[in-house]
Amino acid sequence: MSEKHAQEDIKLDPEDLANHAKLEAGDASKLPGDQSPEDGHGEPQPTRLYKRRWIIVFLFSSYSLCNSYQWIQYGIIGNIFMKFYNVEAFTIDWMSMIYMLTYIPLIFPVTWLLDKKGLRVIALVGTALNCVGTWIKVASVRPDLFAVTFLGQFCCSLAQVFILGMPSKIASVWFGSEEVSTACSIGVFGNQMGCAIGFLLPPILVPNVEDMDELAKHVKTMFYITAGVATFLFILVIFVFQERPKLPPTLAQASARSMPPEDYSYVASILRLLRNKPFVLLIVSYGLNVGCYYAVGTLLNRMIIERYPGEEVNAGRIGLTIVVAGMVGSLICGIWLDRTKTYKQTTLAVYIMTLVGMIIYTATLDQGLLWVVFITAGCLGFFMTGYLPLGFEFAAELTYPESEGTSSGLLNCSAQVFGIIFTICQGKIIDNFGTLAGNIFLCVFLLIGSVMTGLIKSDLRRQNANRLAKEEAERRMLEQDYGATTQISSQPQTPSSQA
Length: 499
Fold this sequence. Notes:
About 75% of the residues lie in helices and about 0% in strands. By secondary structure, the chain is mainly α. The chain is built from 20 helices and no strands. It has helices at about 15-25, 50-70, 80-85, 90-115, 120-140, 145-160, 165-175, 180-205, 210-240, 250-255, 265-275, 275-305, 310-340, 345-365, 370-385, 385-400, 405-435, 435-455, 460-490, 495-499.
């Protein structure tokens, strides 16, 4: 892998001292050589930030976008697909819920595969499955081929398992300690942008026409566009996506790399996480919040059409407003966390504001003023979807040095479970008691989640590990300085110096 220093004694070398100063400051982007986690003197491995990290995170964000777009592709024009395939509303709801159901049993083997094979293998499998699913859908554009289109959606839901929990892992493997939250937000940004496009484009590409042949042409056009984009991104991942940088970006990541593979047990890691009480509270509270978001996204078409008939396009635009506002919230929260490190305080504040936003959205939905719904939906989205990267990053802090992929997988598994429960329950409540009762149902669980978030003990282990590593580097530098000074002062003076 990398070479170790061969010297036996510490020498007074200005370049070495400069390197230590960079290490102390947390800026080792220009340190020479590729060293092992500890060199011959037991000193920390140098760190470096590579420009390629931005290409990696934006490429991930792009193929995450392509996959998440398809999550809501059917639901936002559910009434049109019900007519085209001659199926019931609950069947169309399953085109969204299959994403959630598939995730629950498969996240554990996929997370194990991530720890064993790394990011590149996961990226290749995820984009390949997504590509295959899009082409299956292209072949399903006939009213009697609903089973085929469901198979295509199932393949895309399998791809999601290889995508959804990766942002925090990519951020930790590639980015410095002062930018991990921003990088994680960019990774989540792609997922949110895909949802936004999923709300916006299908109502535009597939208008509600009565001629079934014309409708089939519109559906096929939409599927062809998706398949072309998915294929292009799969090719990019093959040639561009890299496993990890040559040198680690942080001292904490260098420490994680130094752990021998035989010392790591996936099952033991899961058990340690489930014994971590603050993290368990976060698992449940995160699941409640994101599960509500999944239910709102899946049932948004029914909510709007019930009160505003014929407004399929505006239903999509309201969904777009929710997600775009959430993308802004995600980026702002990511930058805020990198600057302040106030993980619990920020998470709790955003959670409470999500509850407030849901109450206001619920109160205004039945007022008959569509422009007001746009505003209140945007406020809800800013906090509800802005919460997504906060959960990932707070989990990474609470669970360090456990794998970020494992902690993110557990969070997402909780979200999928609650997403299925909330979608089914709220759908039934809407059918029997109306939209207002269904939204009040979600508000109750957001209140419970807010209380649980307030009970989480803030134990920022990753930040503490970086701080201790820097302090150790500083201590070693001071010891080296002291030893060098002693060595110089003990040398015999020359005659000229005596004069």
